[in-house]
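To: structure desk
From: M.T.
Subject: fold request, one chain
Message: Could you run this one when you get a chance? Sequence is below, nothing fancy, just the single chain.
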Amino acid sequence: MKVLMINGSPHEHGTTNAALQIIADELKVQGVESEILWLGGGAVRGCIGCGGCKKAGKCVFDDDPVNAIGEKLKGADGYIFGAPVHYASPCGAMVSAMDRLFYAFGQYMQFKPAASVVAARRAGTTASYDVLNKYIGINNMITVPSTYWNMVHGNNAEEVLQDEEGVTIMRAIASNMVWLLKLLDNAKGTELEKPVIIPKVKTNFIR
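Reply: Done. Structure tokens follow.
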């Protein structure tokens, strides 16, 4: 079993990475492999709603890390999406990446467990947490629970490690992720492997 984590911060070894590393360490203790993918510090294109990914099987834009990350998403059993708070919202690059990842690769993540994690110096955490959770909720995924909202506080990685409550929240995410992965693994080959699929219907408010 493997958990794939995305560090959406422009700073590779900043507060978001510190939070994800706590999760990674606990996953390892409990026997689950993980990998942290850094989104990078460069530009990330936003989704333009062209629908090209439905035909190509990947995003039509191939000049940033999104498609490479998407390919990795296919083989993972669980996911953690991490981002720093910028102006009371997840950083822009992460939002752009998530839009495109879920459009182009969302089918590979359905019915798998996932959690979102946010890091901030002080405020904007719950609003940012809500934004990232909406991707999980729209894609038939299983939200991994914890003991509080999934956030850490600190101005740098060292300060995050001093956030004792934040550290325990991250460890609880990891522990609950392992629990869900084991439950899902035991359900393979049975009627419990997936729910009855209800076809999606789209309607518009203006006809």
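Reply (cont.): The beta strands are 2-7, 33-38, 78-86, 89-90, 113-120, 142-143, 151-153. Let me know if you need anything else for the meeting.
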